[in-house]
Amino acid sequence: MLELFKILNSLPEPLKSIFIIFGVVFVIYLIIKTLMSIFETVEKIVQHIKLKIYYPLVSRLVKREHKKYVTEYLRSLVTRHISDAGLGLRYDIDIEWSDEERVLLDIEKGVLLVRVPYVTNLQQIIAKLLLMVSPYAVSQYLEPVFGPKLAQLLSISIARRYASREINVLREFTKYVDEAYDRDFRELLDFIKRADDESLYEHIVLFELRKILDAHDGYIDRNKLENDVIDLIKVVGSLHTIDIPIICGYYIAIAIVRVGVLEKIMLEEWDRYVNYIRTCIRKCSKINRIYIISAGKVVREIAKKFVDYMMSNIEKIPDIREIKLINEISYKMRYYKGKPGIPGYMAIFEIE
């Protein structure tokens, strides 16, 4: 440090003054960063004390405090973090005890008002509330279009992710879902779970839902979109058993390309995949999005090369009008072929 000051002292003006100014600015930055970290830590401690000590005691005596307790607890689980698929709750949440179960969105204030009957069991009410607000993490139009029950089912993977942050809430959430969705929905739930295990439900199904609902401002033929979405869920939830995974519906028209045969990609036999895309487009001329997916660290890195090849050799796919890469995502799957934490990669192309 002493040597540094000697070197600084020996510098001619204006270099010496410039370095001093930069040094002062850097020190101020470090101080501010440290203070922000301290404030954040203190805030977390205060929040923890409120949720774990204060509210559990006071809410037993005062009904109004129980509502605050539920609201604060729900907010602690539901963050404003937006996922790499563009999904996430963008609104603040308020709770109102009522005879009805209903969610009201005030777009101007950015607030979700959730009306529910009064319940003393904290985990039970939180489990229900997570299901009620989860559709709004996908799109403001999801519940108005599909109705509460189906909208909650379609966004159940998001609600489960929030619930999993507290083991007791997750336990109550699982119980509540089992009771709320009977055998008519059981098959669809199984497809959703399989797709969600590989992190494809969020990145394909919910991504498509959000894009379509937002593009049409909610003016949708529910029956046609519902048929498309159910077909999509079944395809994404059983990818390993389908030769050519295509959805050619009224609203949803996509192709999924699995870059996974190691000998093909190690030899960079990209034309095979290009020909496969051409085959998909011939089968469904209105395809507007193509999902390139892969699993495994080695496969993922080489799959990126294929995406680069696609971008630089697009003229080899004459069947399409214009194609552009709109997103690349690297993530970890919960389970893939019985193994947890396998790296995944996805590239999304849009055809115009």
Task: Give a verbal description of the structure.
The protein starts with a helix and ends with a strand. Helix 2 crosses helix 3 (63-77). It contains 14 helices and 10 strands. It is globular and about 70 Å long. It folds into 2 domains: 63-182; 186-351, Alba-like domain (Translation Initiation Factor IF3, 2-Layer Sandwich). The strands form 3 sheets. Strands 4-5-6-10-7 form a 5-stranded mixed β-sheet, with helices on both faces. A 3-stranded mixed β-sheet has the order 1-3-2. The protein has a two-stranded antiparallel sheet with strand order 8-9. It has helices at 2-10, 15-58, 63-77, 122-133, 142-146, 148-154, 156-163, 167-180, 183-197, 200-215, 222-236, 262-266, 270-283, 297-312; strands spanning 92-97, 102-106, 111-116, 246-248, 253-258, 289-295, 323-332, 335-336, 339-340, 343-351. With 352 residues, the protein is an alpha+beta fold. Strand 4 and strand 5 (253-258) form a beta hairpin. The model has no long low-confidence stretch (mean pLDDT 81).
SSE arrangement:
Layout: H1 2-10, H2 15-58, H3 63-77, E1 92-97, E2 102-106, E3 111-116, H4 122-133, H5 142-146, H6 148-154, H7 156-163, H8 167-180, H9 183-197, H10 200-215, H11 222-236, E4 246-248, E5 253-258, H12 262-266, H13 270-283, E6 289-295, H14 297-312, E7 323-332, E8 335-336, E9 339-340, E10 343-351
Parallel strand pairs: 1-3, 5-6
Antiparallel strand pairs: 2-3, 4-5, 6-10, 7-10, 8-9
Helix pairs in contact: 2-3, 4-7, 4-8, 9-11, 10-11
